[in-house]
Amino acid sequence: MLNFKLSELIRSDTAVQHNINNMPDINSLDCMLELIVNCLQPIREKLGKPMIITSGYRNSQVNKLVGGASNSQHTKGQAVDFVVNGMTPAQVVEFIQNSKIEYDQLINEYNQWTHISYNKGKNKMLAFKVN
Ligand SMILES: [Zn+2]
């Protein structure tokens, strides 16, 4: 059963601070649902630990303010950043690589959080680390 809330993927402190409406368009919503169903929910269930989304959908304005790449998958509803209580990003990446979960990109970002994306029909299964 899905227990992700859309609000978990839309919430943005930057958007609130700048009074920006970070509501996704219908195409992004479609991608977000694919990401939840095929990626985030299976991860949450296999982990059995709290998984906290720190950044999900970002419209182009919000994305620019947080310094995201202009072609970021966050702007398409295809990516989230998250942390897991009691696990380092390196452990999270390893866990997901060892699961049968499909993803596009899986990134340990600065040993601070994990970025994961899902691109229906075009998943590259690419895992790496950025410092
Ligand atoms: Zn990210």
Structure description:
The chain has helices at residues 6-10, 13-17, 26-47, 60-65, 89-98; strands spanning 51-55, 79-84, 105-109, 113-117, 126-130. With 131 residues, the chain is α+β, with helices and mostly antiparallel strands. The protein has a single domain (6-130), classed as Muramoyl-pentapeptide Carboxypeptidase, domain 2 (2-Layer Sandwich), CATH 3.30.1380. The mean pLDDT is 96. It binds zinc ion.
| Poorly predicted spans | none
According to DSSP, the number of beta strands is 5
Rg (C-alpha, Å): 14 Å
Number of helical segments?
5
Order of helices and strands: HHHEHEHEEE
Number of domains: 1
Structural class: alpha+beta
Question: Residue-averaged pLDDT, rounded?
Answer: 96
Query: What small molecules does this complex bind?
Result: zinc ion
Using the coordinates above, name the CATH class.
Alpha Beta
Calculate the terminal CA-CA distance, rounded to whole Å.
36 Å
